[in-house]
Amino acid sequence: MIGRTVQVRGSARLSFTLINLDAASLRRNGIAAMAVQRPGLTVRMRASRGATSRVLGVEPETAADLLAALATLEKLWDGPPVTVTVPRPLPQHSGFGSKTAGLLAVGRAYGALCGHDPALPQLSEILGRGRTSGASTGLAEFGGFLVDGGHRNPPDFAASPATYLRPSRFAQPVPVPKPIVKLPFPPWPVLVLMTNGRHLGGAEELAWFQRVTPIPQEQAQRTAQLVFMGLAPAVAEHDYEGFCDAVNEITFTSHFKREQIAFQGRAVEDVLTAGRDSTAIDAIALSVTGPACFAFTRTPEAARGWAQSLMRRGAIRDFWFTEADNCGLTVGHVPHR
C-alpha cells in the first residue's frame, strides 16, 4: 500500500430546514437539504511509514476529529497508519456539513486503502454521525436534493424531549435516517454568500439547541407541509417559482428557521432582508445556523451585481455561484510520482 494515494472528492451540504423538533410528534428531526459542488472537499490519503497517522491541511479541531476516526477504523480493520492531506477543506461551522463530510471522506479513503467498501450509512454510524440529520450522509451517497424522516421517538420522548433533541455530537446512538425523498436537483444556479455572522459548534451549540427546542407542534406541522408539499414537489416538477415560494416561506416565516436567524442577529438578518427586497434574488435561505446563506436567481448577472454591492458595504465576506452536485462522494487514485 506504500506509494498508493487514494483521493476522495465530496460536496457541500446546504440545509433548508430541520422539520420535526416538537415534543408531541411520532418522529423527531428530519431535514430537507441539497448538495452543491462548491465549496467542495478533497481528501488525499496514503499509507505511512511512520508509527502514527497524520492529518495535514485542516484546522486543529478538524484534525483531531479525523485522527479519532482513523483510530477507530485502524482498530476495526487492522489497517496501517496513514498520512491524510486535505488540499480543499470545507469551511468549519459554517452550514456546509463539514464534519460529517470530512469523516465520511476519510473513512471511505481508508476503506479503499484497506480493501473495505462499507456503505456510507454504516460508516456514518461507526463514526458517530447521523444521530440528528441524515442529510450529509445521504448527500454523500446520492447527491442532489433529499428529505429524510428523522428518527422514531421512544415512549419516554414526550416526558423528556431534551434528552433526544440534540446536535449529532451529543445525541444518543441511533441508525442514520434514510432518505424518503431523493431527487436530482434541477440546473438552477445557486449563489452562496459568506456573511459576517457567528459560528456555532460544540457545547455552545448544545446549549442553544436545548434553549430553542422543543418548538410548538403546530409549527413543526407547518414546516413539514412546506417541505413535503412545497420544496419536494417543486424540485420533482422543476417548478422554479413554487420552489422559490417554499424557500422564502421557510426562511421568513417558519419557527425554527427564525430561531436560527435570531441567533445570527443583524449580520445575517440584513443580508436575508436585502435578498428578499432585491429584484435580482428570487429566494434566499440560511443553511442550518449559518453563517452561510444561499440564494436562487433567474438573472445571475444582476444577482452578481447585488452580491458585489453587499461586498462593497462589508455585509458579506465572499460569494460565488455554484450548481447542485447530483453525484455524491467519488473515490479515485492519484498516480505515484
UniProtKB/TrEMBL annotation:
InterPro entries: RFAP_synthase, Ribosomal_Su5_D2-typ_SF. It comes from the Bacteria. This is Beta-ribofuranosylaminobenzene 5'-phosphate synthase family.
